[in-house]
Amino acid sequence: MTRPDNTRFAAGVDIGGSHVSSTVVDLLTGELMSSPLATPVDCTAPATEILDAWARNIRQTVATSALPVGQVGMAFPGPFDYERGISLIDGVQKFDRIWGLDVAASLRDRLAGCGCGPLRLRFVNDAAAFALGECLGGATRDTDRVVALTLGTGVGSGFVADRRLVERGDTVPAHGWVYHLPFEDGIADDAFSTRWFRRRWHYLTGETIDGARDAARRAEEGDTTARRLFEEYGTRLGAFAAPLVERFGGRTLLLGGNIARAWELFGPALGERLAAAGCRAEVRRSALLDRAAMIGAASLFL
């Protein structure tokens, strides 16, 4: 398979609350053609300041690569109109001042002339970008059907078949999003995020912790309550994930996000619960870590 030079390379951009990161990706191989560049961004700043910071980061990445880049894929947190490139984030103390803004048009003007040929922009949810990136060049590059979950301040998700996102149909929830799905007496976003660790630890001990990282440190130091906490988390996550994976026909369950870094503490319980539910999918962790979303965003042009 060959591609014209001006479509072989794409910039992948990951928009975070405190910084923007970008790199140039070879779409034939998934290889990074420039070192990832991270630039701090004040997410409470005026729209012009935020957009200018994003554009400077992308322009510098493209210039450093010295390649003909006419395509930019961007991974954004939601809510966001990914088809039109319009931010819908509001009331969460970040990016409020770009609410309703046509990000695509605003960036296209700022990026004019930074690459080669007319610039194309595409947008994707950051958790879905993570899934795509791992499928192109990471932990699940050899798997045709993947269910990905990112576990952190919230629960993100992506369903991938043959390196393409599946966002509609009978085998996936609407948009491929699971954060709002019911679980126990609430929703998945509350049941498997950092908030659950804080709430559950307080219930068990009457004390407070910062979150999963704090609990993991205590578990590694031999705290039996912390170890039981992660075992409970793994069992519950298995109960939630098994029907999602089976419905999609997933061969692999892929985990990312900060909580997944504590895999050794909850992985065995997760595996046991999946097996008990008759789910034979292999569980894998992110191989690309912070690079996955950038590579996945670039892969929108495959």
What does this structure look like?
With 302 residues, this protein is an alpha/beta fold. The protein has two domains: 5-130, ATPase, nucleotide binding domain (Nucleotidyltransferase, domain 5, 2-Layer Sandwich), CATH 3.30.420.40; 142-286, Nucleotidyltransferase, domain 5. Helices cover 38% and strands 21% of the residues. It has helices spanning 5-8, 47-65, 103-111, 126-137, 188-191, 194-205, 212-220, 224-248, 263-276, 292-298; strands at 9-15, 19-26, 37-40, 71-76, 80-81, 86-87, 120-125, 145-151, 155-161, 164-165, 182-183, 186-187, 252-256, 282-285. The protein has a five-stranded mixed β-sheet with strand order 3-2-1-4-7. Strand 9 (155-161) and strand 10 form a beta hairpin.
Strand order of the largest sheet: 3-2-1-4-7
Q: Note the beta-strand portion.
A: 15-25%
What is the CATH topology classification name of the largest domain? Answer: Nucleotidyltransferase, domain 5
How far from one another are the termini?
12 Å
Q: Per the principal axes of the C-alpha atoms, what is the gross shape?
A: globular
CATH architecture field of the largest domain:
2-Layer Sandwich
What structural class is derived from the secondary structure elements? Answer: alpha/beta
Please give the share of residues in helix.
25-40%
CATH superfamily of the largest domain: ATPase, nucleotide binding domain
Number of continuous helical runs: 10
Please tell me the overall pLDDT.
93
The secondary-structure element order is HEEEHEEEHEHEEEEEHHHHEHEH
Number of strands: 14
Low-confidence stretches: none
Query: In this structure, how is the largest beta sheet organized?
Result: 5 strands, mixed
The tally of structural domains comes to 2
Output the CATH class name of the largest domain.
Alpha Beta
